[in-house]
Amino acid sequence: MNDEIILDVRNLKQYFPLSKRLTIRAADDISFQIRRGEIFGLVGESGSGKSTVARSIMGLYRLTGGEVWFQGENIADPKIYQKNRRNIQKNMQIIFQDCAAALNPRMTVRNSIAEPLQACGCCSGQALDVRINELLRQVGLDESFRRKYPGEISGGQRQRVAIARAISTNPQLLVADEPVASLDVSIQAQILLLFQQLQQEYGFAFLLIAHDLSVIHLLSNTIGVMREGHLLELAETEELFQNPLHEYTKSLLSAVPMADPVYERSRQILEFDPGCIPESGSLREARPGHWVFG
Ligand code: ADP
Ligand code: MG
């Protein structure tokens, strides 16, 4: 990891008006940064606003408020996004939970992987197929997969194809929104390991989203905890485990299985009391490098 900030999210707000009276504050005043080579884990239960944050960063929504700085520009500004659209699409890639929906069922694996490479003008002709073979190898699939359709391969293999597609353009930022949530537990570990390997090889900044802390804590350098649209706590992984500051974080940590049998015996599942979330507030630094909402 180095000090270059790849993504800088500042006070991001995404509200969805449902009716005249009711507005959902899906993401409220979210701020964090991701550096080159960093794996940032964003964790929180279902409905806490994780996907909203991911989609807002990717430019899929017009923000209610806040800024998203990428490559030195605030791409939350629609004019700036439009001006840099091709470059952003090449350098920011997203992987979704539902890889079946992410891949076109009528496209072969080869053509699915070729698509972003052709769109960004990264390679063509023979070089394109050489690159596709290389990508297949890097995600653990052999060349026979080139001719297959998404319906003919397993969920784990489909996710590998989606990963090959996403890294094909050598992006600066990879966002993976619950990438293993729909896979068998045994396959989950393989895919997470693959992410780790590829991240070391390619060096992208990585936003890894999960509802389960046990999925991401081994990979993440930094962890942000979300709850009801707020970022409650933000710290380096080790610091978060040693000194969780928020009751909700403690309840998430208590559900993470640990290899240490002594710790394992003393482990308790803690109930989270929603009453401890402040109505409004902002992130403050509780100790150097450890931020807490309050
Ligand atoms: P998570 O990914 O953590 O499960 P989401 O970001 O999907 O959470 O959703 C956060 C909240 O925002 C939920 O209450 C959800 O129903 C709501 N929400 C998300 N997207 C929309 C939308 N496009 N329109 C209205 N409400 C939405
Ligand atoms: Mg989600």
What does this structure look like?
The protein has helices at 50-57, 78-83, 85-91, 99-102, 109-119, 125-138, 155-167, 185-202, 213-216, 237-242, 247-254, 261-266, and strands spanning 5-17, 23-35, 39-43, 65-70, 73-74, 92-95, 173-177, 205-210, 222-227, 230-236, 283-287, 290-293. The chain has 294 residues and is α/β, with parallel strands linked by helices. The chain has a single domain (5-293), classed as Rossmann fold (3-Layer(aba) Sandwich), CATH 3.40.50.300. It is globular. Bound molecules: adenosine-5'-diphosphate and magnesium ion. The site of adenosine-5'-diphosphate has 11 residues, from strand 2 and helix 1.
Topology:
Elements: E1 5-17, E2 23-35, E3 39-43, H1 50-57, E4 65-70, E5 73-74, H2 78-83, H3 85-91, E6 92-95, H4 99-102, H5 109-119, H6 125-138, H7 155-167, E7 173-177, H8 185-202, E8 205-210, H9 213-216, E9 222-227, E10 230-236, H10 237-242, H11 247-254, H12 261-266, E11 283-287, E12 290-293
Parallel strand pairs: 3-8, 3-9, 6-7, 7-8
Antiparallel strand pairs: 1-2, 1-4, 4-5, 9-10, 10-12, 11-12
Helix pairs in contact: 5-6, 5-7, 6-7, 7-8
The structure holds adenosine-5'-diphosphate (ADP) and magnesium ion.
